[in-house]
Write a structure and sequence with these properties.
The chain is an alpha/beta fold and about 290 residues long. Helix content is about 30%, strand content about 25%. The chain is globular. The structure holds uridine 5'-triphosphate.
């Protein structure tokens, strides 16, 4: 009898960062949305840190026009470091921006045709391996982090995984929603997926929340894909076509999630993190009292 092939580990992550960020204009006219900082770290840094914690080695950025600052952020800044060293300043603060040579890859999505299309642009780098996807404007805070939990679940069930969270029913029409099957702890079998359903037609209130582990076959599915909701090539539609062919599960993340693609979500994340950080918490708490007082 032949043994099943051993499960390939998740070593690669795709960060689609080629969107236009129109909800943050004019701030995002010349600066990528993913470089907007929550306190002192850009959004993309939080996502890369979460990937590292999950054991992911290769970071693949799908960038577009005006997005070079993201790649620069993870580059070696020779002059900055030399000047800081000369002035006796500690370089530890730059540590998270270091990525080993060869482990940062940037591919270009020339026209923002949707999330599914952005992922498909990374197909040659992903090759024949499972890969993670991070939407950096969804900030996931928890310990262990969301992707670490997903990688652990992947070790158990394999196949495709998405992170989900429950929202009030009236909010589902802005998101991808799952049709849930059997539930076991934090793992839920996924029977169907629908992008931006009408509230009355939504199969649940569990929304896809910006983290995925996908099998490379999804790239072939994306290749032949028609445009979906909003005239864009939707990742959700391609994933929906994988259901039944490969295992598909959702992981309910028990940490916190902030939708930093929206202004109020961005402000909430900034306040929440500032309040809990030791270096900013006391001053921000006093400031909040003063402002509300
Ligand atoms: P969003 O719809 O949240 O981002 O896409 P956006 O289009 O940049 O923002 P708004 O709505 O205009 O304000 C989710 C993620 O997918 C990426 C975005 O960069 C974001 O990280 N994306 C989206 C692409 O890389 N390419 C696309 O064609 C669309």
């Amino acid at each position: 009898m032949t043994q099943p092939a051993p499960r390939k580990p998740v070593r690669k992550a795709v960060f689609p960062v080629a969107g236009l960020g129109t909800r943050f204009l004019p701030a995002t006219k010349a600066i990528p949305k993913e470089m907007l900082p929550i306190i002192d770290r850009p959004l993309i840094q939080y996502a890369v840190d979460e990937a590292r914690e999950a054991g992911i080695e290769q970071m693949i950025f799908v960038t577009g026009r005006g997005k070079t600052a993201i790649v620069e952020h993870f580059d070696h800044a020779f002059e900055l470091e030399a000047t800081m060293r000369e002035r006796g300043k500690a370089l530890a603060v730059l540590e998270p921006t270091r990525i080993p040579p060869g482990n940062l890859v940037a591919v270009r999505q020339q026209v923002p045709m949707g999330l599914g299309h952005a992922i498909w642009c990374a197909r040659a780098i992903v090759g024949d391996e499972p890969f993670a996807v991070f939407l950096p404007d969804e900030l996931m805070i928890g310990s262990p982090g969301c992707m670490k939990r997903m990688v652990d679940a992947y070790g158990e069930v394999g196949g495709n995984l998405i992170s989900v969270l429950a929202v009030p029913r009236e909010e589902v029409s802005s998101y991808g929603v799952i049709a849930p099957g059997e539930r076991r702890g934090a793992l839920t079998e996924v029977r169907g997926l629908v992008e931006k359903p009408k509230t009355a037609e939504a199969p649940s209130n569990l929304i896809i929340s910006g983290r995925y582990i996908l099998q490379p076959e999804v790239m072939r599915t994306l290749e032949s894909q028609e445009k979906g909701a909003g005239g864009e090539i939707q990742l959700t539609d391609a994933m929906a076509r994988m259901i039944g062919r490969q295992p598909f599960h959702a992981v309910t993340f028990d940490g916190r999630r902030y939708d930093c693609g929206s202004k109020t979500g961005f402000i909430e994340a900034t306040l929440a993190l500032a309040l809990e950080r030791e270096d900013t918490g006391p001053a921000v708490r006093a400031m909040a009292r003063r402002l509300l007082g």
